[in-house]
Amino acid sequence: MITLWGRNNSSNVKKVRWTLEELELPYEHILAGGAYGLNREAEYLAMNPNGLVPLLQDDETDLVLWESNAIVRYLVAQYGQGRLWNDSPARRAQGEKWMDWALGTLAPKHGILLVGLVRTPADKRDTAAIEAGINACEDLFALLDDALAKQPWLSGEEFGPGDIAVAPFVYNLYNIGLSWTPRPHLESWYQRLTQRPAFIETVMIPVT
């Protein structure tokens, strides 16, 4: 049995839930983190000393794993043959680079806007930081648009982990009341994602 710990509105938890749903894997979902707590309790810290979500337990392989990208990579390698797994190391790496880019480059700028516009009262917002965040995300959207002009998915010719890693952040940025410069290739990619049942189920929820 697979058990996932984490709150639904976490972008990093969304990635894992989305992967599980794409692979049609049965799992138990324990709400943890944020208002749900549990992630600072001794039982949880024994499994993840960082006290963060998501956390995955897989009884089949006796695995306890934290860090969202590591979890997605594991699930795809263990259960994704013929689906999300790519047998070519070179093509797999080209897709997976977007996983690291999402956390190292996109997520911090996304966080500025999520916290600044969604989780901060209007009278306490740092408008300069928000404006800088918007400009930074415009540049990152241009980069994504350029990449998607060359191939249909960030993972290459087929949907894969690179798309799963980036899309939750793009979804949030598209749904926090901002107007973005039109990017036809990025928007086409996004619209195709919105037709995937697993994306609808796990990512397309209110941004909080």
Describe the structure.
Residues 1-83 form the GST N-terminal domain. Its EC number is 2.5.1.18. It catalyses: RX + glutathione = an S-substituted glutathione + a halide anion + H(+). It comes from Phytobacter massiliensis. Belongs to the GST superfamily. This protein is an alpha+beta fold. The chain has 2 domains: 2-79, Glutaredoxin (3-Layer(aba) Sandwich), CATH 3.40.30; 89-201, Glutathione S-transferase Yfyf (Class Pi), Chain A, domain 2. The protein is 54% helix and 8% strand. The chain has 8 helices and 4 strands. The protein has helices at residues 11-22, 42-47, 68-79, 89-118, 127-148, 161-174, 184-193, 197-202; strands at residues 2-5, 27-30, 55-58, 63-66. Strands 2-1-3-4 form a 4-stranded mixed sheet, covered by helices on one side. Strand 3 and strand 4 form a beta hairpin. Helix 1 packs parallel to helix 3. The two termini are 30 Å apart. The mean pLDDT is 98.
- The run of helices and strands is EHEHEEHHHHHH
Mean pLDDT: 98
- Could you tell me how far the N terminus lies from the C terminus, measured between alpha carbons in angstroms? 30 Å
Gyration radius, in Å: 17 Å
The biggest sheet, with number of strands, parallel, antiparallel or mixed sense and barrel status, is: 4 strands, mixed
Percent range of helical residues: 40-55%
Global outline? globular
